[in-house]
Amino acid sequence: MSNKKPLSIIKIGGNIIDDATELANFLADFSKIDGNKILVHGGGKSATKMAKSIGLVPQMIEGRRITDQPMLDVVVMIYAGEINKNIVAQLQANNTNAMGFSGADGNLIQSTKRNHPTIDYGFVGDVKKINTPLLQTLISNGIVPVFCAITHDKNGQLLNTNADTIASELAIAASEVFEVTLNYCFEKAGVLTDVEDENSVIQQINSELYAQLKKEGAIHSGMIPKLDNCFNSLSKGVQKIRIGHHKMLKDNNAICTSIEL
Amino acid sequence: MSNKKPLSIIKIGGNIIDDATELANFLADFSKIDGNKILVHGGGKSATKMAKSIGLVPQMIEGRRITDQPMLDVVVMIYAGEINKNIVAQLQANNTNAMGFSGADGNLIQSTKRNHPTIDYGFVGDVKKINTPLLQTLISNGIVPVFCAITHDKNGQLLNTNADTIASELAIAASEVFEVTLNYCFEKAGVLTDVEDENSVIQQINSELYAQLKKEGAIHSGMIPKLDNCFNSLSKGVQKIRIGHHKMLKDNNAICTSIEL
To answer: Which residues are recorded as binding substrate (chains A, B) (predicted)?
Structure first.
């Protein structure tokens, strides 16, 4: 038996953030989760909406969105400003002592500007290092960290960073000192073998079954990098990962996908 | 002799924030200040610029700016997002372990929506309570808090709040546990008896001289609420207040206005 204390890391995306009622319900449920916890949130549609309203045209190269300087300014103000602070204020109203962070705050998440051989992604960061001792200090003081998807390079540059990756990197780093359960909340009940059928949730998946389902083509292409990422996190010390609708957080009997090695 | 540890609180406004070179110089100097410190920053012109670019018309009642919901969204994203996170990232590059906060984060600054008999200021907050124990915990862990001028009411509402007031309320609260020096940095060398003459700095002012200068009309009208606020802070435990150009922070011989009871 591990004598590490449990820590729940929950990642939410646009489907929750873009719907005020859904977000309020989620935050009320999140507040009721016992013990140590961290929230990681993605962006949602408001950054795109803001970018359009100030006349920015999305920069795409080979189908990938590029974060140029004006777009970086927008994501920083929306993710770290509007979304993060509204979530923190609502959690405080639910008596959860939330504190909102970008990776620059307390140097909690340092990243490196992506260096791709053919595509210049602009101001996009790949996570390099988590400040685990400070994270542990905050948590042991009753703080509930709320991370947005912005990091920094420790040379003064903020960087747009994938929220799923932030959640998994936090989970891996925190697993040194906590027994970590990582929860990815999205609009579906879990990983489906048939995207059209909500009843086709794979309730348990391990590396063996994953290899088999990939071979059979039963796992949806967009789900493959997500699951690869999950198995990578598990191999690096994360105890358990769940993917599903956020009702899995309050209802232990809710159907979702549990992932183990 | 007090056995409290010293704490410097520094407030900067738009004149520094709006000028990238000036801001970089200030942040490099700020990083060199020894010991415990807190930075409080105002807004600058970018909130007004953003408001205009998305088509907002400033709401004014009796000459006072009103923070309606769309304007609140703008100040939250600019102050707590763009400005705060860029300052934090630059301080981290200067090896200062900065952490950026609104008042909602960690419930550090709780305020009350202003209730004025004749003017509805909108989402404007007056500071009610500082979470001094948490502030002390953060500082004792080597964190340099960086506050933007946004607070919350603990019921989920973010509120636009005067940065000078945030600085003075933090100074008063922190003076319970620290020996606090509060520094207001602005574009002038100090409080001037002649606004047109930079050489007319009042280098020392106490409550007696202040009463006399007000009587003589030598103190500029806009300076009166600022100085009233200073004397109030001093009467509530703040050790020392200085007003002047930020060069006073690195050069002990720089001319500035020192205020004592």
So the answer is: 43-44, 65, 160
- Domains by residue range for chain A, with CATH: 6-259 (3.40.1160.10)
Dist. CA B139–CA A119, nearest whole Å: 42
Task: Give A155's contacts in chain B (Cβ within 8 Å).
Answer: 93
Determine contact, residues A31/A94, Cβ cutoff 8 Å.
Answer: yes
Q: In what order do the strands lie in the sheet with A257-259?
A: A98-101, A144-147, A36-41, A5-12, A178-185, A240-244, A257-259, A204-205
Rounded to two decimals, what is the model's pTM? 0.96
Of B53, B89, B143, the CB nearest to A158: B89
The C-alpha of B162 sits at a distance from chain A's nearest C-alpha, in angstroms, of: 18
ipTM score of complex: 0.95
Report how far apart, in Å, the C-alpha atoms of B186 and of each of B10, B204, B221, B257 are: 11, 17, 16, 12
Which among B82, B150, B156 is the nearest to A90, CB-wise? B156
pLDDT tens column, A141-200: 999 999 999 999 999 999 999 999 999 999 999 999 999 999 999 989 999 888 889 899
- The string of pLDDT tens digits covering residues A203-254 is 999 999 999 999 988 887 778 888 998 999 999 999 999 999 999 998 888 9
